[in-house]
């Protein structure tokens, strides 16, 4: 059955996807993914590079190796975390990971020119940050009738971060330096931990009190308002023998890792073409708007059309955007062409990335969803690290 875990497979849910409970949990997911994950320090890395390399005398190559450590160590832990999530639940993984992220952000200001410490902290940030991928298990279990739209909207944390980070980063670096920036990020992450504890429900459960313990068995759900769902789908060993999974894995890597890999160099690349920092920030803001549009269109198409071919136009649009970025200069195309190129490139990032996870649920169900998502993130992060 190629529709396991997808809309229409199971009996219609009694609770609407737009109920107050689901909207509350969705808001918490978006808050956690955007402001309590490794995304903010990752995106901010490109903005603090001039300050830190000037202060410590590091080369750009030395500095950017921190990004590689973040990706590589994140890759090493994402798959095991996915396996644990499918067995013991998402809440313990997400909560422990979020506390770890806050601690690392608060330790980053202690760097005094020691490259090994800088690399170590970003390696740990990658390890704890890989817990953020487990939010997708909560999303897919929560939404049944509009899963594509939900995955697209709640997968927009990177796009939202790119809207928030430029202005916030510039203000904090100007007034408090790069140390103040990382301290602020750490305090924000720490403040969100209690929100996650009390408001983020374990996937497949409803009406159970918040707990740090493992996922309760079915027998533990008692009372009219407490239920535990049994997830359907293929076992991980069956998925690994399925040709479709490996095709999806390869297609997802080809279509996404290039765009993510160049993200940290985007500002420097635009400035090297002769544009100002203000022009680069403006282009990134425009690209975020394009990304939000692509996200909404992608979510609608996933729920509307039962075919994986809907991903093709997103990749073609992104390819056209990268060609524009390659050719643009202040004299040729200028700011309008720069904005269009960055915007089209972001269409695939915001609109195309959620499609991979959604197709996992459509083809393989939810039983091993976190495991296969972790394996996909492992391979992708390893490639991005290079």
Structural descriptors:
72% helix; mainly alpha; 386 residues; single chain
Short description:
The chain is mostly helical and 386 residues long. The chain is 72% helix and 1% strand. Strands 1-2 form a two-stranded antiparallel ribbon.
Topology:
Elements: H1 20-35, H2 39-56, H3 60-88, H4 90-107, H5 115-129, H6 135-142, H7 147-154, H8 157-199, E1 205-206, E2 227-228, H9 236-240, H10 243-261, H11 266-272, H12 277-304, H13 312-327, H14 334-364, H15 369-385
Antiparallel strand pairs: 1-2
Helix pairs in contact: 1-6, 1-8, 2-3, 2-8, 3-4, 3-5, 3-15, 4-5, 4-8, 6-7, 7-12, 7-14, 8-12, 10-14, 10-15, 11-12, 12-14, 13-14
What does this structure look like?
A two-stranded antiparallel ribbon has the order 1-2. Residues 1-13 and 216-226 have low confidence and may be disordered. The chain has 15 helices and two strands. 72% of the residues lie in helices and 1% in strands. With 386 residues, the chain is an all-alpha fold. It has helices at 20-35, 39-56, 60-88, 90-107, 115-129, 135-142, 147-154, 157-199, 236-240, 243-261, 266-272, 277-304, 312-327, 334-364, 369-385, and strands at residues 205-206, 227-228. α4 (90-107) packs antiparallel against α5 and α12 (277-304) packs parallel to α14.
- Span between termini: 38 Å
Spatially, the strands of the biggest sheet line up as 1-2
Mean pLDDT: 78
Shape: globular
Structural class by helix and strand composition: mainly alpha
Report the strand count.
Answer: 2
- Helical fraction equals over 70%
What is the alpha-carbon Rg in Å?
21 Å
DSSP strand content: under 5%
Major β-sheet profile:
2 strands, antiparallel
- Residue windows where pLDDT falls under 50 for at least 5 positions: 1-13, 216-226
Provide a count of the helices: 15
Elements, N to C (H/E): HHHHHHHHEEHHHHHHH
